[in-house]
Specification:
hydrolase; alpha/beta; Glyco_hydro_1_AS; TIM Barrel; 8-stranded parallel β-barrel
Length: 477
């Protein structure tokens, strides 16, 4: 039987600099926002933008500082990805490795050389690098000096950074993305965009002005990428997941549409090139004034993305009934009413493979541009057996169901160019900072306190994913 997945489909995995690399001040790297996010109850407050210090505190554990030390283990890790048959690895460049404070005249050569070495290692195995330019990390110096993306100055600094990496890696990287999960800015302002909120701020004014700056910066990066690397593809990236209406009550249906539009807003601008009417009405109703410079609207219109990258972990559900809303959870940051038809992960994330098909169809119908699933996976507590093996059948079942949904999506006529599952090797969780919330096919011996040997070992899912890739998604037994 012939696979429904297209020839050349980019099977692989996805990691982020701040969750994998460690070596947080090595070789001239500057402090980045995630380096200020501790484990424990304080983490969420910092991610929200309630932060008092721009220095790591004594005696506090910051998981990004060491992470899984991909910085020194990249050859070993990439060899394991190659053994699985990866066609692509999505990863990010840490802005502060290239410009430690964001304002240097010249880039940090040691930082540039590190990514050269990583890309060379990937290309040695015919693994396509898929590179996110900004994945939840802003140089802390820019947060202190400018208030991060609150300020227009960030646009030119980001443009300089992206032009630098496009020039440097133009012969090595053909797939790019601008901002990871750009809509996260509205939900976790400091994690998403380095925004610190202070007393007296009009929160929505601050966040939507910051969003405008990021959208303009993204368009400038698209322009630069097309000029510097004409055969490259550059996309946007959305934290996606269809929002279901809890009932057929039209009020609930409208509420679910509004919740989806809150996220679509960003991609509407990046893909269609203009602010949608519903956003303009929202700004008017909320008395928000988005300050734009001459030429911004033309820039947005003329430099739209080539493809839509998105993460999908779960669907969401909403209601207008106060009693039902009172029971909602904050699984995966996005508040959601419990869906009675679905099971959830150990962290309360709804498991909904059909939701992936619904979300992908929704995005393709809306934009008519190629889609790239750049994050998806199951975070779970993996307990090694006495011989060290990890029998993660629960992960295999999750993936199988989502791959079957992807196959249906392709048959629906959706143009899907690739799938990079989240955390093919165990990495630090972005939301909780934990190591015990594991996604990988490769187990890393480290715990929540950073203790362990960092030894890498294959889980049962390693061989299963290898077989799935080798058959181009046909053999999922």
């Amino acid at each position: 039987m012939v696979s429904v997945f297209p020839k050349g489909f980019l099977w692989g995995g996805a990691i982020a600099a701040n969750q994998a690399e460690g070596a947080y001040l090595a070789d001239g790297k500057g402090l980045t926002t995630v380096d200020l996010m501790p484990t424990g109850p304080e983490r969420f407050q910092v991610m929200l933008g309630n932060i008092q210090s721009f220095e790591p505190k004594e005696g506090v554990f910051y998981p990004s500082h060491e992470a899984i030390d991909f910085y020194h283990h990249y050859k070993e890790d990439i060899a394991l990805f190659a053994e699985m048959g990866f066609k692509a690895l999505r990863l990010s460049i840490a802005w502060s490795r290239i410009f430690p404070t964001g304002e240097e005249e010249q880039p940090n050569e040691k930082g540039l050389a590190f990514y050269d070495a990583v890309f060379d290692e990937l290309l040695k195995y015919n693994i396509e690098p898929v590179v996110t330019t900004c994945h939840f990390d802003v140089p802390v110096a820019l947060v202190e000096k400018y208030g991060s993306w609150r300020s227009r100055e960030m646009v030119d600094l980001y443009e300089k950074y992206t032009k630098t990496i496009f020039e440097r890696y133009k012969n090595k990287v053909k797939y790019w993305m601008t901002f990871n999960e750009i809509n996260m800015l509205l939900h976790l302002p400091f994690m998403g965009a380095g925004i610190v909120l202070t007393e007296g701020d009009n929160k929505e004014q601050v966040l939507y002005q910051a969003a405008h700056h990021q959208l303009v910066a993204s368009a400038k990066a698209v322009k630069a990428c097309h000029e510097i690397i004409p055969d490259a593809k550059i996309g946007c990236m959305l934290a996606a997941g269809a929002t279901y209406s809890y009932t057929a009550n039209p009020e609930d249906v409208w509420a679910s549409m509004e919740r989806d539009r809150e996220s679509f807003f960003f991609i509407d601008v990046q893909s269609r090139g203009e602010y949608p009417g519903y956003a303009k009405r929202f700004f008017k109703d909320q008395q928000l004034t988005i300050v734009m410079e001459p030429g911004d609207e033309q820039l947005l219109k003329e430099h739209t993305v080539d493809y839509i990258g998105f993460s999908y972990y779960s669907s969401r559900c909403t209601s207008t009934d106060p009693e039902i809303l009172a029971q909602q959870t904050n699984g995966n940051v996005f508040a959601s009413v419990k869906n009675p038809y679905l099971q959830a992960s150990e962290w309360g994330w709804t498991i909904d493979p059909k939701g992936l098909r619904i979300t992908a169809n929704q995005l393709y119908d809306r934009y008519q541009k190629p889609l790239f699933i750049v994050e998806n996976g199951l975070g779970a507590v993996d307990v090694p057996e006495t011989d060290g093996t990890v029998n993660d059948d629960y992960r295999i079942n999750y993936l199988r169901q989502h791959f079957e949904a992807m196959a249906e999506t392709i048959q629906d006529g959706v143009e899907l160019i690739g799938y990079t599952s989240w955390g093919p090797i165990d990495i630090v969780s972005a939301s909780t900072g934990e190591m015990k919330k594991r996604y990988g096919y490769i187990y890393v011996d480290r715990d929540n306190a950073g203790q362990g040997t960092s030894k890498r070992s294959k889980k049962k899912s390693f061989e299963w994913y290898k077989k799935a890739i080798a058959s181009n998604g046909e053999d999922l037994a």
